[in-house]
Amino acid sequence: MVRLSHGVPQTNTRPDVTDQELFWGSDQYDFAIVLPAAGLECFWHFAHRGEKFYLNFMVQWVTGMGHGRQLSVTVNAPSGLLVSAVDDAKAQITFEAAETGFYQMCFSNLHNRFGTMQIFLSFGVYYDTYQDPSKSEEDEEKKKEEVSRELNNTLSIIEAATHKVENHVFHMFRYYGFSRMRKSVDYFLLQSNSKYITWWSMALSVLIVTSGYLQLLFLKSLFVSSTGAEGEKPRC
């Protein structure tokens, strides 16, 4: 993801290594943002061609009169082409990167013009196989020949199994993060409903007491006796 250094975007944090070495490996981010009414916020994340890019998002709570939970999300390739577009309160976007560079993710609150919303984000890249970028093509060919000749090599089997387990653990944490999003949304919804019920109960209680008091005053005013002559009967 792009970092800011003294107000200037800094895309290469280690100039002594190549971008392939710098960004290679499973990389993910989980955080929440608050979008103002009709607000727009964008993020950029690096991915190489052929790698898996994923984005999960979910609207946690909404304020304002309309309480519209709809969120417009777009993902653009480094060349500016639209990769994916979603208009919903939650979604999971996964695709294979067709270009190498920074992919843009924009979140727009255009449907809710009179209230803010909090969004939980989880995005990153992952790799089904691992490759050492420092090796040349000749080394890669030699490695393939050695692997084909030594299928029963214990170390190779352990290494492949380790990378497979790492990949499965990574996906497990991805789905765990999405379940955390759903849990937080349910929590904020319960809080909102509790406040709504409490305030309406108080308002209705005050209305009932006030209406009863006014009815009592009205009935009392119907039975007013006059203070005239003695022979004059009470007036109802």
| Class by SSE composition | alpha+beta
Give the helix level as a range of percent. 25-40%
**Could you give the distance between the termini?**
83 Å
Q: Please tally the helical runs, counting DSSP H or I stretches of 4 or more residues.
A: 3
Radius of gyration: 32 Å
Strands of the biggest beta sheet: in what spatial order? 3-10-5-8
H/E series, N to C?
A: EEHEEEEEEEEHH
List segments where confidence is low: pLDDT < 50 over at least 5 consecutive residues: 3-15, 17-25, 132-136
> What is the overall shape?
elongated
Major β-sheet, in short? 4 strands, antiparallel
How many strands? 10
Rounded average pLDDT: 77
Family: Belongs to the EMP24/GP25L family.
Transmembrane segments: 197-219
Domain GOLD: 40-125
Protein name: Transmembrane p24 trafficking protein 6
Keywords:
single chain; about 240 residues; alpha+beta; four-stranded antiparallel beta sheet; 10 strands; about 30% strand; elongated; signal
Q: In brief, what are we looking at here?
A:
The chain contains 3 helices and 10 strands.
Description of the molecule:
With 236 residues, the chain is of the alpha+beta class. The chain is 37% helix and 31% strand. The chain has a 4-stranded antiparallel sheet, covered by helices on one side. Strands 4-9-6-7 form a 4-stranded antiparallel sheet, with no helix packed on it. Strands 1-2 form a two-stranded antiparallel sheet. Residues 3-15, 17-25 and 132-136 have low confidence and may be disordered.
Secondary-structure topology with pairs:
Blueprint: E1 3-5, E2 8-10, H1 19-23, E3 27-35, E4 40-47, E5 52-62, E6 71-76, E7 82-88, E8 90-96, E9 101-108, E10 117-126, H2 137-149, H3 154-222
Antiparallel strand pairs: 1-2, 3-10, 4-9, 5-8, 5-10, 6-7, 6-9
Transmembrane segments: 197-219
Family: Belongs to the EMP24/GP25L family.
InterPro entries: Emp24-like, GOLD_dom
